[in-house]
């Protein structure tokens, strides 16, 4: 034993392994328990984030240039489709207004200031993405100074894409809904079928091959069909109610045949993100 | 010797630029890079590797710079400190040992880089697995992550080998 440790290199290696595991445990527990990382880390991340915009700017400019050309080609096709939809938009808008007024009146009658569906949107740009296979995270340019809090849901494209996992002063990290590690929190969602019946459950998996979310451990008699809409149910945490998650792709039983397992198709690809919205629940 | 060399400034600036390019490339090309197979760009380590490989005349403490780059990488990108902070210097250290056995040409560069990257990704994968930060299976990692990542990074190495060789020889 004496001879083994007399070698200086071995001591260094063991100290390094202990330090690495210690640091990792510390940061994992910080991520799970505290609303913000320690000051030094936050300060460092803010400085790196500001410098990052300098490099990200030219890259994003090039990206916009190529996207503009693509957009131009698509515009004509889209225009044709949109024209046919315009007529219905106006009527929906008017109806929406009426419903909103009615809703406000009803809320006043109930003396309720904010319901679960009310949320405040914080729009932010995506700065960069974590170059890693097992941490699907990206960094957005709004932090605690803009009102972002930990665990707030993030919307992109047409639906829910993830939640805020770390908040710094001027930037924050967003963890995608597809990141299904044990340490990440689960989203509480509800599926409404064609008859108007609702099933509540948790999203607790991600199918890497098809890119679909999995909602398992369901024990229900209610029949769910392909195409039924899935949205958040506002239960637990600071996620508002009624954020669109996706639609049911297929409904199967799990490996043991005891409970059903629902696959959910998300509306937008989680890979082409540039602008996202952080949904803050109104207090 | 080092205090008069422009490398003193070029090396850290290069680390920062490579670090942000990693994030930007991952974001802009995320559709093709992170679909079924994961092609993870790792320009930060490539820059450190070239510095280790080409700087001969001056005795630069490349392991310390690697640790610094790893710390920023951990803090800014993953939020889990302690993975790349130790893995980058270790890979550079092993690279230096191997480098003494081989000649300075592109083939030995590819060989050493291949070994270094494998060490980096295997160790970081097992560190994440140990802390329950990923539920990826070992076989999925080997086939869908490690393989494609090695391929794309060796392509980067081949493309950037000659420009970086010229750059470092001018500066050295």
From TrEMBL, chain A:
Keywords associated with the record: Cell shape, Coiled coil
Coiled coil location: 89-116
A UniProt-annotated Pfam family: MreC
Gene3D superfamilies: Rod shape-determining protein MreC, domain 1, Rod shape-determining protein MreC, domain 2
Sequence ranges assigned to domain Rod shape-determining protein MreC beta-barrel core in this UniProt record: 126-279
Coiled coil keyword on record: yes
UniProt keyword annotation of Ribosomal protein present: no
Role summary: Involved in formation and maintenance of cell shape.
Family recorded in the similarity comment: Belongs to the MreC family.
Protein name per Swiss-Prot or TrEMBL: Cell shape-determining protein MreC
Organism, scientific name: Apilactobacillus timberlakei
TrEMBL record, chain B:
InterPro entries: Cell_shape_determining_MreD
Main localization (coarse): membrane
Keywords, alphabetical: Cell membrane, Cell shape, Membrane, Transmembrane, Transmembrane helix
Sequence intervals crossing the membrane: 9-29, 35-55, 67-94, 106-127, 139-162
Compartments, as annotated in UniProt: Cell membrane
Mode of membrane association: Multi-pass membrane protein
This protein's record includes keyword Cell division: no
Record flagged with keyword Transmembrane helix: yes
Signal peptide location: none
Sequence similarity: Belongs to the MreD family.
Name of the protein in its database record: Rod shape-determining protein MreD
């Amino acid at each position: 034993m004496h001879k083994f440790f007399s070698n200086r290199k071995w001591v260094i290696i063991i100290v390094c392994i202990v330090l690495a595991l210690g640091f990792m445990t510390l940061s994992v527990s910080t991520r799970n328990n505290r609303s913000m990382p320690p000051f030094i880390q936050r300060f460092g991340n803010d400085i790196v984030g500001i410098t990052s915009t300098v490099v990200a700017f030219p890259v994003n400019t090039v990206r916009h240039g190529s996207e503009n050309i693509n957009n131009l080609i698509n515009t004509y096709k889209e225009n044709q489709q949109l024209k046919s939809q315009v007529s219905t938009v106006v009527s929906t808008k008017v109806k929406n207004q009426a419903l909103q007024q009615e809703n406000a009146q009803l809320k006043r009658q109930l003396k309720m200031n904010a319901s679960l569906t009310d949320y405040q949107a914080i729009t932010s740009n995506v700065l960069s993405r974590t170059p890693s296979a097992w941490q699907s995270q990206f960094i957005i340019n709004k932090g605690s100074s803009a009102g972002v809090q930990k665990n707030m849901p993030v919307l992109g494209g047409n639906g829910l894409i993830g939640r805020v996992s770390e908040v710094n002063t001027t930037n924050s990290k967003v963890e995608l809904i597809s990141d299904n590690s044990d340490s990440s929190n689960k989203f509480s969602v509800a599926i409404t079928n064609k008859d108007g019946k609702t099933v509540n459950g948790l999203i607790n998996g991600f199918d890497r091959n098809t890119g679909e979310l999995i909602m398992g451990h369901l024990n229900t008699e209610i029949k769910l069909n392909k195409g039924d809409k899935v949205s958040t149910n506002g239960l637990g945490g600071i996620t508002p109610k009624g954020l669109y998650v996706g639609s049911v792709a297929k409904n199967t039983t799990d490996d043991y045949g005891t409970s059903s397992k629902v696959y959910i198709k998300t509306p937008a690809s989680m890979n082409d993100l540039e602008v996202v919205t952080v949904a803050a629940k109104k207090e | 010797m080092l205090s008069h060399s422009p490398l003193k400034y070029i090396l850290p600036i290069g680390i920062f630029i490579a670090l942000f390019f990693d994030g930007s490339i991952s974001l802009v090309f995320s559709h093709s890079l992170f679909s079924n197979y994961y092609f993870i760009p790792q320009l930060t380590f490539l820059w450190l590797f070239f510095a280790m490989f080409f700087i001969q005349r001056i005795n630069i403490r490349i392991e310390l710079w690697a640790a610094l780059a790893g710390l920023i990488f951990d803090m800014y990108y993953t939020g889990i400190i302690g993975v790349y902070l130790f893995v980058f210097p270790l890979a550079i250290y092993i690279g230096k040992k191997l480098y003494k056995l081989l000649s300075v040409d592109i083939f030995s560069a590819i060989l050493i880089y291949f070994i270094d990257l494998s060490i980096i990704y295997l160790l970081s994968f097992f560190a994440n697995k140990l802390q329950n930060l990923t539920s990826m299976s070992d076989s999925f990692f080997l086939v869908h992550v490690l393989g494609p990542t090695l391929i794309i990074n060796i392509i980067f190495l081949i493309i950037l080998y000659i420009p970086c060789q010229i750059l470092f020889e001018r500066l050295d």
